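Postdoc handover notes: sequence design on the structure in folder B. Input tokens:
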């Protein structure tokens, strides 16, 4: 008899964590699990609900205003009881989110599995509250070894509950979307550096723009895909550096595979990155990659093996590293091949799903 699993998020946006939820839902064994999703009724998460529905799961849209709304708790309890939910899987998209999942699972006496998609320090009061809440978690999933270290440092009392399950990518689906002929990507005119990231200071885009200005190549273009609170500041920096003709802000796009397939290089200049799912996509698009040596990134990109790593906030080093890849096709080919081998072996969605199923089984048996 399949076990009933409820995925829950109180997110107001659709980002990397939400994409991982839908990938996991697609690849979990439907013979073993019936999947449900509870998320807010907000238009901003319609995309999550629609994609989740395509996996054959039942969707519950919560009538709530924001993540602090106590109606999350009461509606979650109702869903759990009426649908005989056996595991609540909360996807913690920021360190202080999903608090009502802890309370609802405790009240309904079912195991709680949480995935910490982006852990970090929070205020002392919130930390104390979360320490108390985490006692109710049966299992905690970290999406990288670096995240596991951070979680153990922040919440040592639950260290034994933490396991690493790396994010995975739907390889066949992503490769199917790449329509550009990839055999000769360097024939693009002009050559293109691509980045995909929220326009937020922690993504380090300011340093990428500054690095781009130091390359001083009029035949080179930088495409920035994303939206966020730093957009105006970054556009002003671009104007100040006289790069408006070469640096293109493309906003959020639904054609990421096609953009990657027509680019020549991918750069992720984050100051901190919990994992970096977009790097897996760039690898599958057969792009040479430069990223920062921060967070979970080095678990995907190994310096001089399948890409190049640079320190965060270092525009000079980043510029010089971009020049290296622009001038070295043989090195690019080596990195691309090594990257593909690593993604196929370690970061596929099937592996992510199987490891998550083991955690579900352990949570159920412990209960």
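Designed sequence:
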């Amino acid at each position: 008899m399949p076990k009933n699993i409820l995925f829950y998020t109180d997110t107001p946006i659709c980002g990397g964590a939400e994409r991982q939820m839908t990938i996991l839902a697609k690849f979990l064994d439907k013979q073993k699990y019936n999947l449900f999703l509870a998320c807010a009724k907000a238009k901003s998460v319609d995309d999550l609900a629609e994609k989740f529905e395509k996996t054959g799961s039942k969707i519950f849209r919560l009538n709530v205003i924001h993540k602090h709304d106590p109606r999350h708790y009461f509606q979650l309890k109702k869903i759990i009881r009426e649908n005989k939910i056996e595991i609540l899987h909360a996807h913690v998209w920021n360190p202080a989110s999903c608090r009502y999942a802890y309370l609802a699972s405790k009240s309904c006496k079912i195991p709680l599995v949480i995935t910490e998609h982006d852990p970090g320090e929070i205020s002392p009061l919130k930390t104390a509250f979360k320490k108390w809440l985490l006692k109710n978690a049966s299992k905690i999933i970290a999406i990288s070894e670096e995240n596991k270290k951070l979680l153990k440092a922040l919440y040592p009392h639950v260290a034994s509950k933490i396991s690493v399950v790396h994010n995975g990518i739907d390889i066949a689906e992503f490769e199917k979307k790449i329509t550009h002929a990839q055999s000769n990507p360097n024939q693009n005119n002009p050559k293109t550096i691509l980045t995909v990231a929220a326009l937020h200071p922690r993504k380090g885009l300011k340093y990428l723009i500054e690095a781009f200005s130091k390359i001083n190549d009029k035949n080179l273009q930088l495409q920035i895909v994303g939206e966020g609170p730093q957009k105006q500041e970054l556009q002003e920096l671009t104007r100040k550096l006289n790069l408006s003709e070469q640096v293109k802000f493309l906003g959020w796009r639904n054609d990421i595979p096609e953009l990657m397939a027509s680019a020549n290089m991918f750069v992720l200049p984050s100051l901190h990155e919990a994992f970096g799912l977009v790097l897996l996509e760039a690898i599958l698009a057969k792009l040479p990659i430069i990223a920062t040596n921060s967070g979970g990134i080095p678990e995907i990109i190994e310096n001089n093996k399948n890409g190049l790593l640079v320190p965060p906030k270092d525009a000079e080093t980043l510029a010089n590293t971009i020049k290296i890849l622009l001038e070295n096709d043989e090195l690019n080919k080596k990195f691309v091949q090594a990257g593909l081998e690593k993604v196929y072996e370690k970061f596929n969605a099937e592996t992510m799903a199987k490891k998550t199923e083991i955690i579900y089984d352990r949570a159920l048996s412990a209960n």
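Context for whoever picks this up: The longest strand covers residues 33-40. Don't rerun without checking with the PI first.
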